[in-house]
Design a protein that fits this description.
The complex is a heterodimer of chains A (337) and B (123). With 337 residues, chain A is of the alpha+beta class. Helices cover 43% and strands 18% of the residues of chain A. Chain A contains eleven helices and nine strands. In chain A, the strands form three sheets. Chain A has a five-stranded antiparallel β-sheet with strand order 1-2-3-5-4, sandwiched between helices. In chain A, helix 4 packs across helix 8 and helix 5 runs antiparallel to helix 6. The longest helix of chain A is centred in the last third of the chain and has 27 residues. The termini of chain A are far apart. Chain B has one domain. Chain B contains five helices and no strands. With 123 residues, chain B is mostly helical. In chain B, helix 2 packs antiparallel against helix 4. The chains are: A alpha+beta (337), B mainly alpha (123). At the A-B interface, helix 6, helix 10 and helix 11 of A face helix 2, helix 3, helix 4 and helix 5 of B.
Chain lengths: 337, 123
């Protein structure tokens, strides 16, 4: 691993690079993240990097290859979104796809961000900061950035939501285990699809607490772009409200840090686009189904032997939490209507 | 009664869980390793609860599947039939949907009682 990193960084810089520290960072059920410290000679210039690298198996059918994630990150950086600057070009490190990016300081652990008194001021500032970042993502001219050909796109005449539901059915089928509760929720979603949103945008695809870095009182970076696609921006707006991303702080429905309305109004101000609350409520249910299916798929990476991990195995039993939440939300909206 | 001597299966799981929590996790300085040890302890707690609830869970699901009209085959086969019929629209009528919905709520509550009873208590 170290030799490969040194070889790649030497090629890219055209100088001699010595890696002084290389260790895997905590977190990241889907991708590895490595801290990389290196010295570039001559000149003893320091490189403080993070390497993102594939693990075994894909997370879901929507997972982008690392090289595409690298391109999206570049477009976001150019579009003024707070992200780590991607460096060099996509790499292959010890046989797996990887890329390097700037190391940004900050806290990403959801439980700490929603509960630790040290982040009280950050929690007050985050709705607006997150709204500005998300609006900046949705404003990116994805065609001009060359992302239209790289990213999943709705087919002609197909709504972004219909495409999402179709993918969820396929993913659930891949798990090959009957889930009547998820089938009921999916059936409800199919029969209650809201009117489509006029415009499609770049969608981050996993915009939530746990995937952002907070430093001091400020949003330092939006991470984890592997589910980026072209589609319905309300999917991002609603995803932050999914209960799992409240990290136990259930009362604050927007990521455990703010009231739902506070978040939605902040996003409306930042984007200049009004948000239909009914669509958000619908997409929150879809989001619960998506993470329920995602957790089942994560467990399959362990069960198949591709990525043996007690953490992945345990996710198979987390799925019931999202099933419960999806049923609760459907019941609250009149159930069988 | 099991042909095996004590500790019982439940007692064996509890002993391993106590060891992981008290020794492996508590005395490990590596954050990632400690995190994984605590997950392992939680997984054992799930296994202990499943062992305790399994007979009643199976009985209740069997009753529900019968009430929904699925009598042939094992629980998995009948669950599979229900799942595919829901997707095909056979439960779209409001009274049918309500019935399948009540089954799903009951089963999901039982899954959560094993997987994460604290989540269930939060509502």
């Amino acid at each position: 691993m170290r030799d490969d990193v040194e070889r790649f960084l030497s090629e890219q810089t055209g100088r001699s690079v010595r890696v002084t520290e290389l260790r895997q960072l905590a977190g990241g059920a889907s991708q590895e993240a490595w801290l990389v410290d290196a010295i570039v000679e001559p000149g003893a210039e320091r490189l403080d990097l993070v390497m993102r690298r594939d693990m075994g198996g894909v997370l879901t059918f929507a997972t982008l290859p690392r090289s595409t994630e690298f391109a999206v990150l570049g477009a976001a950086y150019a579009g003024g979104v707070p992200v780590p600057q991607p460096y060099f070009e996509p790499a292959s490190i010890a046989g797996k796809a990887a890329f390097f990016m700037q190391r940004v300081a900050g806290e990403a652990v959801g439980r700490r961000l929603v509960a630790d008194p040290a982040f009280a001021a950050a929690r007050a500032a985050l709705p607006e900061a997150l709204a500005n970042a998300l609006a900046a993502i949705h404003r990116i001219d994805y065609r001009a950035a060359g992302l239209e050909e790289l990213l999943p796109n709705p087919r002609d005449g197909e709504s972004a939501i219909a495409r999402e539901l179709e993918r969820l059915h396929r993913e659930l089928d891949s798990v090959d285990e009957p889930h009547p509760a998820l089938e009921l929720a999916l059936r409800w979603l199919v029969r209650n699809e809201p009117p489509r949103e006029a415009g499609t945008t770049l969608v981050h695809g996993d915009f939530r607490i746990g995937n952002v870095l907070v430093e001091g009182d400020a949003l330092a970076a939006v991470l984890d772009w592997e589910f980026a696609h072209i589609g319905d921006p309300d999917i991002d707006v609603a995803w932050l409200c999914v209960r799992a991303w409240r990290f136990g702080n259930d009362a604050l429905e927007a990521g455990g840090i703010a009231e739902r309305e506070t978040w939605l109004r902040a996003y409306e101000r930042a984007s200049g686009r009004s948000v239909d609350r009914e669509r958000i409520a619908y997409l929150e249910i879809a989001g619960n189904v998506r993470w329920a299916v995602g957790a089942l798929m994560q467990a399959r990476r362990h069960l198949s032997g591709i990525e043996p991990s007690i953490e992945l195995a345990s996710l198979g039993r987390v799925s019931a939490e999202m099933e419960h939440e999806a049923l609760r939300l459907i019941a609250a909206r009149g159930g069988c209507a | 009664m099991s042909v095996h001597d004590r500790p019982t299966l439940a007692e064996l799981l509890a002993a391993v869980r106590a060891y992981i929590t008290g020794e492996v996790a508590a005395k490990n300085d590596d954050r990632r390793a400690r995190f994984r040890a605590l997950i392992a302890a939680n997984v054992l707690a799930i296994a202990e609860r499943e062992l305790a609830n399994a007979p009643e869970d199976a009985r209740v699901e069997n009753e529900w599947l019968r009430a929904l009209g699925y009598t042939a085959g094992d629980a998995e086969a009948r669950r599979r039939q229900l799942a595919s019929e829901i997707r095909a629209g056979a439960y779209d009528a409001p009274d049918r949907f309500a019935l399948a919905f009540a089954y799903a709520q009951e089963i999901v509550a039982r899954k959560l009682a094993v997987a994460n009873p604290k989540y269930l208590a939060r509502g």
